[in-house]
Amino acid sequence: MATTLRKPPAAVRAGSGKPAADGSRRFALLLLSPTFLVLALVVGYPVLAGFRESLYAKAEGLTPDGFVKEGSEFVGLENYTALFSGDRGDAFLNAFWNTTFFTIATVVLETVIGIGLALIMHQALRGRAVIRAGVLVPWAVPTAMSGLLWRWIFQPDGIANAILGRQILWTADGFQSKVAVIIAEVWKTSPFIGLLVLAGLQVIPREVYEAASVDGASALQKFWRITLPLVKPALIVAVLFRLMDSLRMFDLPYVLIGGHKESVETLSMLAWNEAGNLRYGVGTAYATVLFLYIAVIAYVFVKVLGADVIGTARENRKAGK
Amino acid sequence: MRLTPLVGAVAGLALVLTACGGGSDDEKKPAETKAVALEGRGPITFVTGKDTSGNLQKQIDAWNAGHPNETAKVIELSDKADEQRNSMIQNAQAKSDAYTVLNLDVVWTAEFAANRWIAELPEADLGVDKLLKPTVETGKYFNKLYALPADSDAGLLYYRKDLLTKAGITEAPKTWKDLFAACDTIKAKVAEAKDAGCYGGQFDKYEGLTVNASEAINAGGGQVVDGATGKPNVNTPEAKAGLDVLVNAFKDGHITKKAITYTEELGRADFQAGNLLFHRQWPYQYALAQDKKSSKVVGKFDVAPLPGVNGLGVSTLGGHNFAISEFAKNKATAVDFLKYMTSPEVEKANALVIGKAPSVAALYDDPEVVAKFPYMPALKTAIENAQGRPKAVKYGDVTTAIQEAAYGALTGKTTTDQALSDLQNKLVTLTAQ
Amino acid sequence: MTTAHGAALARTPLHRRVLPYVGVVFVLVFCLAPFYWMVVSAFRRPSDQFDSSLLPAPWSTENIRAVFDPDNSFGRSLLNSLVVAGTTTVLTLVIGIFTAYTLARLDFRGKNAVLGIIIATSMFPGISQVLPLLKLFTDWGWINTYQSMVVPSLGFALPLAVWNLTVFFKQLPFELEQAAMIDGCSRGQAFRKVIIPLAAPGVFTTAILVFMMAWNEFIIALSMVNKKEMQTATVTISKFTGMRGFDQPFGTQMAAAVVVTVPLVVMVLIFQRRIVAGLTAGGVK
């Protein structure tokens, strides 16, 4: 560990004098290697081990004296096809729909609220530090704790119902439980988007706005023409990561509403449930399918909205000027 | 305490290559795990959910004082049963020797034994005769003892004695019919009870529902799994009659709508606030409901056995058993530790601190214990008549199936008939070996 | 939302000057009302936990004291959390900054593929990574060590850090760096003296997010550590339970959550001053 971590500074010093033309690829790879090392260990290895696992099935049945049979056999893609048939197929479709619905609903709300938070934080002239710290609070509360907090808020005699003046059974299976999850999730993660967008706002030079004002642009025009295009790269990264996190949503519905409730069961919960019952093959098959789904969504998102995230951000900036 | 990284070099290599147990486990012969004496002496660990009674550490200290070379160290797991089970399974999968004695929920015995995660215990040495018989049953799998009961639990009917008296009812109801009739009488005659709920239990979709649904089915004379053959037998008129009591009570309002979200704690909140007349609950509520700071029903309630369809009902058995990890080193020490922890002295101390139901039968008649916890005799009867939950290797799937069926029926999403026939089919698949 | 934009200019009508404050109030209510409930629940007596009055009656520190019960060694857990999250943040930033700089500033083939691979690593459900890692770390004798928690957290945090920083570096004016190099700075100096201060908001934001991610990490910390002295705070909280198995000490759990959250917020407040000061001192704006 220690040696790999010490590499980058040394590498920079060694490479800093060189022109970035010829050896730049090798130099780049050197700079990238610590990241790849960590990711290969923490993510790559488990994912590959998991994928291998998903091609095997544990032997079924018991020996005459009651022990589970040892060993497992290679079953190819059987664990995958099993996801789409029978009871599991229904559960899969339901979870797929829930996951997608939660993602769309929460990410849209979080984006709108997050941008709002960022603009307000950016504009606030006084006590900006306090506001910023306040906005961070929801994000700082550990997820399991915030699930517990919201469960308490949403219990039949809880404060939510007291405020609303009616008894909604938020934690019972049904559409209302979806709403509860969305509220809790949006509360917790809007600050994430807010914070990243705020950082984006802070690097926009003031002169850009001043120039626009001289040209007589209205506040709304400035928002659409300057602010939004200039924070777009930061916003897209924020939304992309929220999108990926949301698609993997697990603890919140589990703690807030409970396991095995159709209205909030997500794909991650299904994977967890299978693994919890020792069917690691099927569990990792779910995880792999979820991974592919997220990859597709992320790819489409980047292609449609963020093709310029990395490449042309600077051109945008110039255009803004 | 240092952890030995791995059992052996060969096993280690195999582990890495097979990752999550995907490959073969050939090097371990199934036969040799049995009938081998439990050997090895030295330090051990005791793995349990957190104990806040403050008593556990005292007992461990006492043990350590007497066994300076075989000390025990407590490893506390999460407070959630699911997470406790996960941690134990993860360690078993990694074949780690970090855990020696495991504190298992009674329903995990079959799964842990069948997967060879826990060692068979020398039944003859452990003095199981002094323990309540149904509790010992929960530690057995294929007629061999794998886990030693340390405490037990059974549901009781908490009822508002004061209101019953005011309504002129002299004794606790023994059947569901009596219970609902008593409730109607009380509501008609006693003004303060007008808005209270009749009956509550644990009906949210979790393990508590499995317990309550099983009790309802047993109360009707039915069974989830046949006690003698171990075969599922839930699609019967008796089972239906039992479950229908709850289903109909939800429909006609004898159980309030919000009870579908009831866990132990939410039900307790309503009972303590005086909003529930009858409440199926574990013994833990007794002391809390007598606490003047939070409870409005201090001195106003009593406990009785659960009601049934015709005559008294049957409780589902709870509690915990201690087992020894197959991968642990000092198993002989662990056996002694088990004996110590289930000795009448230690269990009595436990019972006296928080009223935990002991597994040692004699303690229920111990004057000191009964004086402090008057429900003990009633609890003993409840445990002696209690039914265990299905002993399934795939218990996780079994309990999910029971919850699925019961929740569907209670919320009116499926009919009772449909729910039970679906459940029967699922259970047949799950227990087919 | 319309309250926010544009109000930067002076000579605005009254409602323009008031509206930002309305916005601020809205933000604080949205973010802090549920947190308020948490604090209130923490200060009730444990026996009043089912209350829903807006103020605890009576106030009690019993829950807070229960959190710091010597038996829980919660102080030690907070320290462990600080070590794990702090180390993770520093390492993530160091590695992340060099990676991001490379991706933003150097031209080489396969750059998009690299970015793609990095982001793909945060697409796998975290829960399925626990068991393989546990086996590996058991093998290496890493159980009950800080690195068994730091390294996975590092892996979870790097993709976000790299992407976020890359976008930031991309946005910074290239010309300044080149000007600095013409003035005689080496590439490393130009990076340190020009780019890093300019990127401060982005680096700072990333640091906060990474620190919080690591601070709140639970599943890995729960699985890799079985020694009380090595537990992090989130794990310790998860072990709070009632006396009798079924009772849930909600108040104590909320008290613990408050105790875990507040240091983060205070830390942000302190660091923020520094960063803002650094920005103005550098005169970059």
Automatic annotation (TrEMBL), chain A:
Keywords (A to Z) from UniProt: Cell membrane, Membrane, Transmembrane, Transmembrane helix, Transport
Segments crossing the lipid bilayer: 27-48, 101-121, 133-153, 223-243, 278-302
Pfam families to which the protein is assigned, alphabetical: BPD_transp_1 (PF00528)
Protein location: Cell membrane
CDD domains per record: TM_PBP2
SUPFAM superfamilies tied to this protein: MetI-like
Keyword Zinc-finger assigned: no
Boundaries of every ABC transmembrane type-1 domain copy: 96-301
Membrane topology: Multi-pass membrane protein
Signal peptide (from-to): none
Main location: membrane
InterPro entries: MetI-like, MetI-like_sf
Stretches for region Disordered: 1-21
Superkingdom of source: Bacteria
Record family assignment: Belongs to the binding-protein-dependent transport system permease family.
Protein name: Sugar ABC transporter permease
Origin species: Actinocorallia longicatena
TrEMBL record, chain B:
Gene3D superfamilies, A to Z: Periplasmic binding protein-like II
Keywords: Signal, Transport
Pfam families found in the cross-reference section: SBP_bac_1
Signal sequence bounds: 1-21
Presence of keyword Chloroplast: no
Keyword set includes Secreted: no
Domain of life: Bacteria
Protein family according to the UniProt entry: Belongs to the bacterial solute-binding protein 1 family.
PANTHER family reported in the protein's UniProt record: ABC TRANSPORTER PERIPLASMIC-BINDING PROTEIN YCJN-RELATED, ARABINOSE-BINDING PROTEIN-RELATED
Protein name: ABC transporter substrate-binding protein
Organism annotation: Actinocorallia longicatena
Organism taxonomic ancestry: Bacteria, Bacillati, Actinomycetota, Actinomycetes, Streptosporangiales
From TrEMBL, chain C:
Residue intervals passing through the bilayer: 18-39, 78-101, 113-134, 154-173, 194-215, 250-271
Pfam families linked: BPD_transp_1
Top-level lineage group: Bacteria
Signal peptide range: none
All residue ranges annotated as the ABC transmembrane type-1 domain in the record: 78-271
Membrane topology of this protein: Multi-pass membrane protein
Cellular compartment(s): Cell membrane
Keyword field: Cell membrane, Membrane, Transmembrane, Transmembrane helix, Transport
Gene3D superfamilies xref list: MetI-like
Family (UniProt): Belongs to the binding-protein-dependent transport system permease family.
Designated name of the protein: Carbohydrate ABC transporter permease
